[in-house]
Design goal:
The chain is mainly α and 181 residues long. Helix 9 runs antiparallel to helix 10. It is globular and about 50 Å long. The model has no long low-confidence stretch (mean pLDDT 89).
Length: 181
């Protein structure tokens, strides 16, 4: 399993470097695989599409766990906003820098328009599951999670385009609007 993780991370790093150097549309999966020192077939075992090289989200479990752990009396939107705020408070500076770079690539690539929205299903599902454990019915849980993720995605793309706004400020502002704080 350790080798798989090392290869996975090498592919993500190679993709980030190439996409930043050449642009998402100009860099090929063959070039990414070559830079990572693996075959293109290996790349597709780890990432089913080129898009997924940028969109795998390591923050989903952190956010879902934090939402689930919120006080039982909190309404769904508050639990989501405050749980996500808490989870993002634990994101280190290097992870935030990596995220900003990924989001900048996404924002600049015409082929990736709507990519975050297409990728949000897994994040929404993780948050819905956390709300369901808290006793929220399926439909309200899905509506609340989808609303929060749509707002957060918009805020994160705007943050990625800026040079000065820290991630915690961008996220806090969005979450304040969405039901927290």
């Amino acid at each position: 399993m350790e080798r798989w993780c090392q290869t996975h991370e090498a592919l993500r790093r190679a993709a980030a470097e190439l996409f930043a150097e050449r642009g998402y549309d100009a860099a090929t999966t063959a070039q990414v695989a070559d830079r990572a020192g693996v075959s293109e077939m290996t790349l597709f075992r780890h990432f089913p599409t080129k898009e997924r090289l940028l969109l795998a989200d390591p923050f989903d479990p952190l956010m879902a766990d934090a939402v689930q752990a919120r006080p039982a009396h909190e309404p769904a939107m508050t639990a989501l906003a405050e749980g996500i705020r808490q989870a993002w408070g634990r994101v280190d500076a290097e992870s935030a820098r990596t995220l900003r770079n990924q989001l900048r690539i996404i924002a600049r690539a015409p082929a990736l328009r709507g990519a975050i929205e297409r990728n949000s299903d897994e994040t929404v599902a993780a948050l819905v599951a956390a709300l369901r454990v808290r006793g929220v019915e399926e439909t309200p849980a899905r509506v609340a999670a989808a609303a929060v993720i749509a707002g957060l995605s918009t805020a994160l793309l705007e943050w990625a385009r800026s040079e000065h706004t820290p991630v915690d400020v961008a996220i806090a502002s969005a979450l304040d609007l969405l039901g927290g704080g």
